[in-house]
Every structure is written in C-alpha cells, then in structure tokens.
C-alpha cells in the first residue's frame, strides 16, 4: 500500500480520532506520534484536516489537540435517525416465537423506564397489564435493574437516592443495601429478575442492551404469571433472552461482550 493512499490515510485519521476521544485532557502531536508510531508530520497533516472540518480542536496556548464538537453534532443526527424498535423488531418477534411469553422492550428516561414495544405471549389467556408508553421506576422492575447494573455504582446510587422509593408490592426491595446487593448479583449473572416487585402475580427475567461503552439505556424482558415462571422456567428462558439482547446490541452497534 502506498504511503499516502486514501485508505491508509483514512485508517490513520480514525486511529487518531479514536485516541483523542478517549483522552481526557487532550494530547500533543508528539504524544500522538509516540502512541501511534506515525511520523509527527503525518500526525500534523491529518490533525490539520480534521481541525478544518471541526472533528478536532487545537488549543493555541498549549498546542493540545482534543476531539471536536462536530462529533457531538454528528452523533445527535445518528441518534435521531436510529429507530430502535425497527432494528429490534425481528429479534423480539423471534424471541416471542421461541418462548411464547410476553416480550417487552424499554428505554431509560431519567429515573424511569418507558415501555416502547410489546409482543403478547400466546402461552396464556392472561395478558400483562403493561402497555406501550407505560412508565415505571427503574428500581422496582427487572428491566430497570438490568440497566442500572451496567452503570458505575455511583451513578446507579444517584438514581436510587433521587427516586421516590416505596413498596409497589410486598416484594419490592426498598432497602438500599439490599437493592445494591441485588444489582451486584445482576452484574454477575448478566440478567435481572423481577420477583413480583412491581406487579403481584407476575415474574420477569430481563437483560440489558449495552451500547458501545457497555452501558445500557435499553433492556428487554420476558414476563409471565408466577404459576408459569418457576425457577426451572427462568433457566429455560435465560438463553433465548441473552441471545436476543446480544443480537439487538449488535444491530444497534453496541457491546456484545456478555
């Protein structure tokens, strides 16, 4: 490959941009050169081009380079055009067929989750009271606990402290330390349970959909009456649920590590 071929230059530019995005205080040309192994003149040329387009910013006083605000602008366009339900629909329908249970897709909104898609299971004449647009607290739902388990503990605790914590049912966890023991367990298992904590007579298993950083703002769940949701059934549902969460994460460009 030629030294300055367009493909090679593009690869190098992306390498520099990704490094700058991860850098907290910015980096000098010398530091970027040392990290990438590129000649300083090559680093300078690529940074100059990216600065002209707003993807990189240079501090004139310190000669430090940082990722530019143009990236934030472009990411907002991507988010606006990303229809999560459309991208997840086929996987959710497959999950419904595989399990014959009620499937939910939720998104996090501040201290709550909002239900944005639902597929009713054919396994029972009983229908969950959930509906698209319904809002529930993160702390008392399986999907909420699955989402919180992907966040740093300090941020999850801040959500807990800002929530109006009360017992929706006799099974709701309202003790802070007990709740965070539950979150630790979710991190270890890779999925969360709602043991009648939000609705008496209903049990759920939920999994987060991590983004590219490993943090989740979406989650999916399978719900059924407790009479049909014994621990043995949870074990059966775990595999299909986790496969679905990984497939949706991949479709959204997120993490599929678990």
Q: Describe it for me?
A:
There is one protein chain. The protein contains 9 helices and 8 strands. It is an alpha+beta fold and 258 residues long. It has helices spanning 6-22, 29-36, 40-52, 70-80, 84-99, 142-148, 153-162, 176-189, 231-251; strands at residues 56-58, 65-67, 102-109, 112-119, 135-137, 192-195, 202-210, 216-225. The mean pLDDT is 88. α5 (84-99) packs antiparallel against α9. The relative contact order is 0.11. The longest helix is centred in the last third of the chain and has 21 residues, at 231-251. A 6-stranded antiparallel β-sheet has the order 5-4-3-8-7-6, sandwiched between helices. It has a two-stranded antiparallel ribbon with strand order 1-2. A hairpin with a 2-residue loop joins β3 and β4 (112-119).
User: Please, how many helices?
Assistant: 9
> How many strand units?
8
Estimate the helix proportion, in percent.
40-55%
Principal-axes shape call: elongated
Order of helices and strands: HHHEEHHEEEHHHEEEH
Keywords:
single chain, alpha+beta, six-stranded antiparallel sheet, two-stranded antiparallel sheet, 9 helices, elongated
List the helices and strands and how they pair.
Layout (H helix, E strand, L loop, with lengths): L5 H17 L6 H8 L3 H13 L3 E3 L6 E3 L2 H11 L3 H16 L2 E8 L2 E8 L15 E3 L4 H7 L4 H10 L13 H14 L2 E4 L6 E9 L5 E10 L5 H21 L7
Antiparallel strand pairs: 1-2, 3-4, 3-8, 4-5, 6-7, 7-8
Helix pairs in contact: 1-3, 5-9
């Amino acid at each position: 490959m030629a030294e300055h071929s367009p493909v090679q230059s593009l690869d190098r530019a992306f390498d520099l941009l990704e490094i700058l995005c991860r850098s907290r205080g910015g980096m000098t040309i010398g530091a970027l050169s040392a990290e990438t192994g590129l000649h300083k003149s090559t680093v300078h040329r690529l940074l100059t081009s990216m600065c002209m387009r707003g993807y990189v910013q240079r501090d004139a006083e310190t000669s430090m380079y940082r990722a530019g605000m143009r990236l934030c602008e472009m990411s907002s366009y991507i988010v606006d055009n990303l229809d999560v339900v459309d991208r997840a629909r086929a996987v959710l329908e497959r999950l419904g067929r595989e399990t014959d249970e009620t499937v939910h897709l939720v998104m996090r909104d501040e201290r709550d989750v909002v239900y944005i898609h639902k597929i009713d299971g054919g396994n029972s004449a009983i229908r969950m009271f959930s509906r698209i647009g319904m809002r529930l607290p993160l702390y008392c739902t399986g999907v909420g606990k699955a989402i919180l388990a992907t966040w740093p503990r300090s941020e999850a605790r801040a959500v807990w402290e800002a929530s109006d914590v009360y017992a929706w049912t006799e099974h709701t966890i309202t003790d802070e330390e007990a709740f965070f023991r539950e979150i630790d367990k979710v991190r270890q298992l890779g999925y969360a349970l709602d043991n009648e904590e939000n609705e008496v007579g209903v049990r759920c298993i939920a999994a987060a959909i991590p983004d590219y950083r490993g943090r989740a703002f979406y989650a999916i769940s399978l719900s059924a009456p407790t009479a049909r949701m014994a621990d043995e059934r949870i074990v059966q549902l775990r595999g299909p649920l986790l496969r679905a969460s990984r497939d949706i994460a991949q479709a959204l460009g997120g993490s599929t590590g678990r």
